[in-house]
Amino acid sequence: MIDVLIFKKSPIPYTEKWVKEIVGIAAKKEKKIKGEVEIIIVGDSEIKRLNKQFRNKNKVTDVLSFAWQEDEMVITD
Q: What confidence tier does 75 reach under pLDDT thresholds 50, 70, 90?
């Protein structure tokens, strides 16, 4: 089972229920994955800043994902 935490920092046209349903569908396809998914929804300027900070790419992107491992953070895109 995957617990979903959603933080809206920018208005979006989707409900939290809809986002949780999508994560639930993905979780059913990847049954070995358990834990917690944290989704933070931000605007263009914030995602651009984060993309520059973590990937050294000074542009807007759709998604940034960060995988957690024991004692270290691994950045994926």
A: low
Phi/psi for 71 (5° steps) reads 60, 10
| CA distances from residue 50 to 6, 14, 47, 76, 77 in whole angstroms, order as listed | 18, 22, 5, 13, 12
> CB–CB of 63/47 below 8 Å?
no
Tokens of 34: 């358990």
pTM for the complete prediction? Answer: 0.66
Contact indicator for 66, 73 with CB cutoff of 8 Å = yes
- Sign, CA torsion 17/18/22/28: positive
Which H or E element spans position 40?
strand 35-41
